[in-house]
Amino acid sequence: MIASYSSALYYNPELPDLSIPQVHSHHDEVDLMQAIAVKAQSSAQQKQLWKDIQTHQPNPSPVVSQLPLDMPIWWPSTYVMLDCAEKKRAYVDTFVYELSLHETNLTKYAKINQLKLHEDEWACITLFTSLLAHADKAQQSFSSDKGASLHLALPALEALHKAWSTCSENPKYKPFQEALQQGVSKIHKYYN
What we know:
Layout: H1 2-5, E1 22-23, E2 26-27, H2 29-41, H3 44-56, H4 77-87, H5 89-102, H6 106-114, H7 119-141, H8 153-168, H9 177-190
Antiparallel strand pairs: 1-2
Helix pairs in contact: 2-4, 3-5, 4-5, 4-7, 5-6, 7-8, 8-9
């Protein structure tokens, strides 16, 4: 479902300058968050800025943490990254603002300003995170360190199929309808 909705690339240290593609006349929210997470970890100075923002704002974060990167070797990383960013939204917005204040190169300044998420983009992140939470819950339900859990796979896939099918019919999830339908179709292949 992620690949159907977002064109975001995973972080590649060989290509640290991430571009911000346009999707359906707006920014790709997943790509924006990936770029922000990379920026927050790209240097000791930016790591410290991210930490300082979390500890010195009017409402300091009870837990200071890095924004996780979206990694190709761990599929829930997109969900974890977006969930963390959503929970730390005020800090994400402040971080991008602070980055732009410190940038003296006009070209880099313009690129940093493109990272600013607007209300509608944050709303999409919230909805997309809620959809990915269904997949994370399904995956967690049949992942266990304590014993056999394969017998839970089919019920988990059925629950995910039902959740995403229901969401695909809800107008609230219209921006994700095609991705949801492709996700439902893929799940359907596993148990038919």
